[in-house]
Structures are given as C-alpha cells and as structure tokens.
Amino acid sequence: MVNRIVTGAHYGLRDWLAQRVSAVVMAVYVLAMAVWALLQPAFGYDVWTELFSGNLMRSFSLLFLLSLFYHAWVGVRDIVMDYVKPAGVRLLIHVLVILALILYAIWAVQILWGL
Amino acid sequence: MKFKIYRYNPEADNAPYMQDYDLDLQAGDAMLLDALMLLRQQDDSLGFRKSCREGVCGSDAMNINGRNGLACITPLSSLKQPIEIRPLPGLPVIRDLVVDMTQFFKQYHSIKPYLVNNDPPPETERLQSPKDRVELDGLYECILCACCTTSCPSFWWNPDKFVGPAGLLQAYRFLADTRDQDTAARLDNLEDPYRLFRCHTIMNCVDVCPKELNPTEAIGKIKDMMVKRMV
C-alpha cells in the first residue's frame, strides 16, 4: 500500500458533542451527590444501601457511569491518536479499550442491581 | 542590551546552539526587528526573514522570550533581558530563525482559501450588504505569519493532519462569506477527527496572535455550523 497521509474520515462531530453532553450529565450527578452528602448527618452502611435501593438512583447512577465510559472513550481515543502512530497498533488499542468499557458497563449494571 | 539567539546552519553545524550577542542600544521606541538588523551588521551570517517591517507581511514571526510574535511590532522595552530568540517551534529549521513553512501552507491550501461561486460573474463586483460584510471582520485580517499554528501543540503533534488555527480561521472566513456557495463541501472537508477536532481549545493561538484575532472562536463557529446541519 502507498504510504500517503489520509484524512477525511467524516466523523468527529458526534463524539465532540457527546463528550460535552456526557460532561454535563457527570457534573449534574457529582453536584447532586455532593449536595446529598452534605445533607447527611452520618454515613453508615444503612444510609448508602437506602440511597441505592430505589430504581431512580440506580438508573441515574448508570446514566452517570455510561456517560463516564463514553467520555473516557473519546478522551482515550484522542490520546491514542496522538501518541500511537502505527495504524494496526492503534486499532488494537481502540478495540481493547472499547471491550474494556463494555465490560465495565456490564459490571456496573451487576453492581447497581445487585445481580 | 543582551541577546541569546538560536543559531543553526545545517551545512556547517552538527547541532543548533544559542549564541550570545551584546548590542549598544537604548530601547526607546525601537522594535526587536531594529535590533536584529543592527545585529546583522555585526554578524552578517545571522539569518532571519523580514519584509514590510510594520506587522503586515508576517515574515518575521519568531519565538521571542518563549512566546511567538512578530519582531517588527514587538517593542524592545517590553522584553526582559537577555532576549532569547528562537525560530517558530514545530517547523523544520532551514537556517537560524528561518523555518520551512511548506507544511503550514499545505494545510492553508487544503481549506480552499478562495471564494467558490458558480454564478456567472457580474459586470461589477459581487456585492455584500454592510451587515454581511461585518461577518468577515476578525477573519480577513490574518496575515498568515504562523505564530498561532506553531504555538499549537495539536499542530506540533499532527502537522500533516491537523489544519491548525490559521487554516481553520481562514476556513471560517470563507464559510462566513455570503458570496461563497461551497458551504456543504467546506464542512465535509473539515469533518474529520484530525483536521478539525484535534483542537482541544487550549487557546494558545488567541494568546499569541499579533493581529489580536481569535481562531478559537472561529473554530467554535465551524463546530456550531456542523451541529446546526446535523440536528
């Protein structure tokens, strides 16, 4: 194959936008958690289990984690694009990162719903 | 007045080095370029580019005390001594302060820096309303000195793929021009993880621009246009 500089992949906007939206979701979650924590007189196992017993909190937490994973994917991909030059190695790292993040998402569901 | 200047002649030197110079000169109203011209009278092997000497041609862009700028409009009185002068970072050095701008202009050309209009040419100019013309302010003034692009780490990392702040500012200059008919193709040309989205908004470009332009804002507007067309 000829060694040419190839650009024009026609993506990037969606990820750029998703990174911003996911940042907002994470900021709201962190703020909500901080406010909740400030309002608690004491922290114990019972307080934490009660917080995570409702489906609303579990869903909100899952939304936060999925936002985190997508945000992390875009960020890690950007770093790999800058530092890893051989396309084959880059693809391999991309695949490994995606698989790891999917596993984390499955794991998060198991933890949140106590499966 | 003390200077430390980057010297490198690939035909004679094994490696670049910093040379000390001493100049008997009161800063007064003099600009850095005046000092460099006097230094060249002392040492005619000192290489740098210059032309208009009033901040219009963009030839004498260099790294002055760690910051990119034009020597001809940088007052000596504003600089801490010893004044350390290096070539623009991130571009191959041809000699001393003279860099090879090929990659910079390649990126500039890649955004089609000209009006695309397929209507038959009118008898006189293609006119714009004053309101439409205002949209080009802060864009057309760019002199392509490369101060911004060579202060951008994303360009240092991917000079072959990332258009860079100067090129993107010009890309928006034509996107913003009501006489241009190539908007969709221009946006297609930039929708790429490298060409546009390597910009991480660190704003070094805005910080150094000697014409006080704002490439980051222009890049933001390109992204806005892309979002508008997507949703």
What percent strand of chain A? under 5%
Could you give me the name of the CATH homologous superfamily of chain A?
A: Fumarate reductase/succinate dehydrogenase, transmembrane subunit
Radius of gyration of chain B: 20 Å
Number of domains of chain A: 1
Protein described:
The complex is a heterodimer of chains A (115) and B (231). With 115 residues, chain A is mainly alpha-helical. Chain A is 77% helix and 0% strand. In chain A, helix 1 packs across helix 3 and helix 3 packs antiparallel against helix 4. Chain A starts with 12 loop residues before the first helix and ends with a helix. The model of chain A has no long low-confidence stretch (mean pLDDT 93). Chain B has two domains: 98 residues, Ubiquitin-like (UB roll) (Roll); 129 residues, Orthogonal Bundle (Fumarate Reductase Iron-sulfur Protein, Chain B, domain 2), CATH 1.10.1060. With 231 residues, chain B is an alpha+beta fold. In chain B, helix 2 packs parallel to helix 5 and helix 5 crosses helix 8. The N and C termini of chain B lie far apart (59 Å). Chain B is built from eight helices and seven strands, in the order E-E-H-E-E-E-E-E-H-H-H-H-H-H-H.
